[in-house]
Design brief:
The complex is a heterodimer of chains A (337) and B (125). By secondary structure, chain A is an alpha+beta fold. Chain A has 13 helices and 14 strands. In chain A, a hairpin with a 6-residue loop joins β13 and β14. The C terminus of chain A is likely disordered. Classes of the chains: A alpha+beta (337), B alpha+beta (125).
Chain lengths: 337, 125
C-alpha cells in the first residue's frame, strides 16, 4: 500500500483532507493508498444527516468548532488533534469486502501494537469493550474510500457537548454516556506517544510513498471548495418522508437508540423500520430484528410478539423486546406525520 | 430482446419507448447492504449522460448515482423515498427515477444484460 504524503506539515481545515481522498480516488492510478491526518476540533456529519438534529450548533459556534459534512454515510463524529483520521483508497466496487478488509487490517495493526482490538462488523473497531474507531465509506465508480477516526486521546467535554443529537438527549443522561462508550488508545495501554503512533501506523500499513506536488495540492484545493457549498452542508432540519416517524431515546445499559419507522397509509402497521444509535451491535440487526417487524401491527403487544423468537439482547447489547417496543410505539398518536 | 442497459457504475436504465426507468443493479444493491436513504433530484431536472444525479446511502456506504443517458426527470419514485429498503428487495423493480430519454443513440454506449453480467463476473475475480 502506498502512503500519500503532503509537501507541507501545516494542519488544514478538515474538508481539505476529504478532498484529498476524493482527488486520489479520481486521479491517481489504480492502487491502494493510505494517509493519516489530524485537524483542529471539528464535527463531521454523514452525507444525509440532519445536522440541526445531530449537532449542538450553538455550542459549536460558541467554541469555534466547524461543522462539516462528508460524502460518506453514517453518523456524526468529533475530531481533534488528539485523534488521527485514517484515509484509505482502494480500487473496485466491492463495498462489503473492502470495508471488512480495511477494518480487519487496522485492528490487526493495533493488535501488533499490543492493543486487543477487533472489528465489530458495524464499521467500528473496538478494544476493551469501547469503540476506538468509527469508519465510513464513500463509493465512486471503480473506487472505494474508507475513512474514520482513531482515538488516541479524548477531549470528552467538547465531544459530549458538540454531539448532542436531540433535545431528548440534552435532558437525558446522554452527555455522560457518550464518553463511557468511547475509548482511546492512550487509556487502554498503548505505549507510544501520539506522534510515534502516527509514524508507526504508516510504517506498518504502507510499503512505499507518493509525495504530492504543488499542482496536486491545487487540484485538491479546487475539490475542497465543493465541501463548503451551503447546498452541500445543509444545516436546516430535514423533514422525514410522509408516513414516517422517528423516535429517539436513551435506554439505560443500552445507549441512545433512534428508530425510524415507515407506517402504512392508515398508520396501523409497520412497513419498514431502521435502528440507529450508539449502542453496541452484536449481530445483524436488520435481518434479526427489523425485518421481523415489517407488516406487524403498530402496537406494543404486536411488536413484542413479533420479536418473541429472537433474543434481542444478543443483537443489541443490553436491550430487550419490551423496551424496544415501547421506544417504537410510544407517542404513536402524536408523532405520525 | 432485453430493454435494460447498464453503466459500469452499476446504474441501469430500463427502456420503454421514449422513456426509461433508472435504478441500481442487483449487484450494487447487494454491495451496499441495507439501504437507508435515497437522495433524489426534482421532477423536471435535466442531466447529461454520466452526470451524478443523487446518491444512495446504506448502513455500509454512500454511493453517488449517475445518469445513463441525457435525460429529463419525469417522476421520482416516492415509494422508494419513503421506504428505501425496497431497493434491496427488488432493485430492478424499485426504480428511482422515470426519465425522458433525450438521445436514444446513447443507449448503444451502455452494456446490455449479457455484457453487464460478464462485467460483474470479471469484477468478482
Amino acid at each position: 500500500m502506498i502512503h500519500l504524503r503532503l509537501p507541507f506539515d501545516e494542519v488544514r481545515p478538515l474538508p481539505f483532507y476529504l478532498a484529498m481522498e476524493e482527488w486520489a480516488a479520481r486521479t491517481l492510478p489504480v492502487g491502494r493508498y493510505f494517509f493519516c491526518w489530524r485537524v483542529e476540533p471539528t464535527v463531521i456529519c454523514g452525507r444525509n444527516q440532519d445536522i440541526a438534529a445531530e449537532v449542538n450548533l450553538d455550542y459549536c459556534r460558541d467554541n469555534g468548532i466547524p461543522v462539516v459534512r462528508r460524502r460518506s454515510g453514517g453518523g456524526a463524529v468529533f475530531a481533534d488533534m488528539q485523534n488521527y483520521m485514517f484515509s484509505y483508497i482502494a480500487p473496485g466496487d466491492a463495498i462489503q469486502s473492502t470495508f471488512s478488509a480495511y477494518t480487519t487490517m487496522i485492528a490487526d495493526m493495533l493488535c501488533r501494537l499490543g492493543i486487543d482490538a477487533q472489528a465489530n462488523g458495524r464499521n467500528d473497531i473496538v478494544a476493551g469493550g469501547r469503540k476506538i474507531s468509527g469508519n465510513a465509506f464513500y463509493h465512486l465508480p471503480g473506487r472505494c474510500i474508507v475513512h474514520g477516526t482513531m482515538l488516541y486521546g479524548l477531549d470528552s467535554t467538547h465531544m459530549q457537548h458538540a454531539l448532542t443529537p436531540s433535545r431528548a438527549k440534552l435532558v437525558s443522561k446522554a452527555v455522560k454516556s457518550v464518553s463511557m462508550r468511547v475509548g482511546c488508545l492512550r487509556d487502554i495501554g498503548l505505549e507510544l506517544t501520539l506522534e510515534e503512533f502516527g509514524r508507526k501506523a504508516i510504517e506498518m500499513l504502507t510499503d512505499s510513498e507518493h509525495m504530492l506536488c504543488d499542482a496536486d495540492v491545487q487540484g485538491i484545493e479546487a475539490l475542497e471548495q465543493r465541501y463548503y457549498a451551503p447546498e452541500f452542508i445543509r444545516c436546516e432540519p430535514r423533514e422525514l418522508p410522509a408516513g414516517c416517524i422517528r423516535r429517539s431515546s436513551r435506554i439505560d445499559g443500552v445507549g441512545e437508540i433512534s428508530a425510524t419507522v415507515a407506517l402504512t397509509a392508515d398508520g396501523t402497521h409497520i412497513r419498514g423500520i431502521s435502528l440507529d444509535g450508539d449502542f453496541f451491535l452484536l449481530d445483524d440487526v436488520d435481518s434479526l430484528v427489523c425485518r421481523r417487524l415489517e407488516g406487524v401491527e403498530f402496537c406494543e403487544a404486536a411488536v413484542v410478539q413479533a420479536l418473541s423468537q429472537v433474543d434481542v439482547g444478543k443483537v443489541i447489547a443490553g436491550l430487550d423486546s419490551i423496551s424496544l417496543a415501547r421506544l417504537i410505539v410510544q407517542y404513536r398518536n402524536t408523532l405520525y406525520t | 430482446m432485453s430493454n435494460i442497459y447498464y453503466l459500469p457504475s452499476h446504474e441501469y436504465i430500463r427502456v420503454e419507448g421514449a422513456e426509461g426507468y433508472v435504478g441500481i443493479s442487483e449487484y450494487a444493491a447487494s454491495q451496499l447492504g441495507v439501504v437507508t436513504y435515497v437522495d433524489t433530484p426534482e421532477e423536471g431536472d435535466t442531466f447529461a449522460a454520466g452526470e451524478d444525479f443523487g446518491a444512495v446511502e446504506s448502513r455500509k456506504a454512500a454511493s453517488d448515482l449517475f445518469m445513463p443517458v441525457d435525460a429529463e426527470v419525469l417522476e421520482v419514485n416516492d415509494e422508494l423515498v419513503d421506504n428505501p429498503r425496497l431497493l434491496n428487495n427488488a432493485p430492478l423493480e424499485a426504480w428511482i427515477l422515470k426519465v425522458r430519454i433525450e438521445d436514444p443513440s446513447q443507449l448503444d454506449g451502455l452494456m446490455d444484460q449479457k455484457a453487464y453480467d460478464e462485467f460483474v463476473a470479471a469484477q468478482q475475480h
